[in-house]
Design brief:
CATH architecture: Sandwich
Order of helices and strands: HEEEEEEEEEHEEEE
Largest sheet: 8 strands, antiparallel
CATH class: Mainly Beta
Strand content: 35-45%
Length: 213
């Protein structure tokens, strides 16, 4: 009987550790996207079936007061359609007067990379910005796009892009969106690189489409 009581006490203690490890100000939301709807292609022609590499199934967005993280699950990552040179995956949202976008690119020509951009919604201009320690990757084994954006780094990027609206815990993000599609690297012409990306599928956070950090 003493052994049974001890096991019960250990189990309760373990639960206590798990509960205490969850930040009090943590926020999380999960949403689904219809399967089989990644059918919009850049090269217009005969209808083609949905491309599993772009087909978003569901996504979870979380903020613990320090980092904003996204985990988006796809039907089957890894394949690059023959007409493209790569795949493009984008996570974007509005914050203050800026649209912030983190892109994860698979590129057979120039090599895979991530890119971060801030567009001033008042002017429509993309301003140069760096998101320090922001990361994005494709977890091919789990068929998941994984992005981590430190909240302080987002605000620093906002400042460098000269966009109004402080990004801090409690700030509201709007028009949260995941996009996936073909990537075309056309190489270099007269010293200028030219690339193009398409959206075959998108998964927007359902109405009202906002998330509080």
């Amino acid at each position: 009987m003493r052994i049974s009581c001890r096991k019960g006490a250990l189990a309760l203690a373990a639960v206590g550790v798990l509960v205490s490890s969850v930040p009090a100000n943590a926020a999380s939301t999960t949403w689904k996207d219809p399967e089989g709807d990644a059918t919009t292609y850049l090269d217009v022609g005969l209808p083609r079936p949905s491309e599993p590499a772009y087909d978003v199934l569901d996504a979870t967005l979380t903020s613990d007061g320090k980092d904003l993280t996204l985990a988006a699950r796809f039907k089957k990552l890894g394949k690059i359609p023959p007409q493209a040179t790569g795949n493009a995956y984008r996570f974007s949202f509005l914050a203050g007067e800026g649209r912030f976008t983190m892109s994860v690119i698979q590129d057979l020509v120039g090599g895979s990379f991530t890119a971060f951009a801030v567009r001033d919604t008042t002017t429509g201009i993309n301003n140069a910005a760096e998101c320090v320690k922001c990361s994005g990757k494709l977890n091919l084994q789990a068929n998941r796009l994984e992005i981590k954006l430190p909240i302080s780094a987002l605000d620093s990027a906002r400042k460098s892009a000269k966009v109004a609206g402080k990004i801090a815990p409690g700030a509201k993000l709007g028009e949260v969106l995941i996009e996936a599609g073909e990537y075309y690297n056309f190489g270099y012409s007269v010293g200028v690189g030219f690339s193009l990306s398409n959206t075959a599928d998108e998964a927007a956070l359902p109405a009202p489409g906002t998330f509080t950090l």
